[in-house]
Amino acid sequence: MENRIINEVTQQLIERKSVRVFEKRQISKEAKRTILEAAMEAPTAGNQQLYTILDITDQKLKEKLAESCDHQPFIASAPLVLVFCTDCLKWLQAYQEAGLTPRDPGVGDLMLAVTDTAIAAQNAVTAAWSLGIGSCYIGDIMEQCETQRKLLCLPEYVFPAVMVVFGYPTAQQMKRKKPKRFELEDIICENTYQRKDGAALRKMFTGRCDGQTYNEWMKKFCNRKYDSDFSREMTRSVGEYLKQF
Question: Which of 78, 82, 168, 176 is the most exposed place for a label (fewest CB within 10 A)?
């Protein structure tokens, strides 16, 4: 790509990819603290840090999360597992502690907290990669609301928005090619949203269809992702969390 600036930070952002197979090597206390502190230095609305990070150290709990998060055994083998929870409870309690009678948290508060939480998680992911530590986001933590609440002892107004597993990548994982992203013009709109027509959508997916037609590839992807059982379960589960807001 022309006309861009590459330095150590931008190069690492470009090269970073998901890692699902880890070396049998522990993450040092110093590296772990660096990752956690980097997360907490992330931009945050009103300096509120509307999240709580669960550091999952209990191996049995890791194994249960590996099962509840779509039966993914690599979760249990990760040396570091963090669950980033949006937390609209702590500030509510802090207001009440001051003798105030604040309103109950609403969906706007939740969305602001989700933003805070996701930014913190990405800071952790970026810091880890700079230390040679790979990671993988686990969106399935938003599924199985009833199970996750019980496993993680989640009170009202606390939502497990992001789970990330960390570990040192194997050589095979480092050699694995990172999936190609869309082109800038597919994602960037100047000033206002510009709806894509059919031709633009088909051009956007050029190179992603693996020798299939656009319609064939899109049907398979839709069935595997968007219309899948796990996607429907995630929608149901998140709806349950939303009820408290």
Answer: 176
